[in-house]
Amino acid sequence: MNPFPFLSAWRRDPSGTAKLYGSIVAQARLPVFYQGFGVPDTLEGRFVVLSLQLFAVLHRLRAEGESARPLAQDLIDRFSTDMETVLREIGVGDLAIPKKVRGLAASSGALLQAYEEALAESDAALAAVIAEALPLERAGAVAGRLAHYLRETLVLLRSQDVDGLRAGEVRFPGTIPGMGLGDD
Length: 184
What we know:
This protein is mainly alpha-helical.
């Protein structure tokens, strides 16, 4: 076990992956998701929004095939490290961290897989998966808006060059005037 996982991630890509993951996190932190879309501004709500951003980028990288696999793995590794940091910040004890991280990784993987399967089905299926993940009693309307946003994001990402993504350059709806996030 590597006691310094952040060093191995740094060696693989000193700037591109960090910048790309930073952009994913920055997009997930936009107030419009919590104030405009109605996602609860809680740890669970933020996790769902972050997982949607991450899923969109991973989905784009999957379309590139084997050549993009190292970047996708680096993003997943950064996500896991980020989740470990969050657990520590909320006070989970050092001895419980590995078990919690494994559980979180398993549930995150299942959620990303559920997004993928629902995406292949329909908008309603995608909204249902998102609604199930949201910490809301009546998540239907919020999930519908997030599903629409995710589809819009996937279309936008399709037009982005994978070399730009490797360099950490990504555009999301809302970062381009007239695209998404409150433009309805």
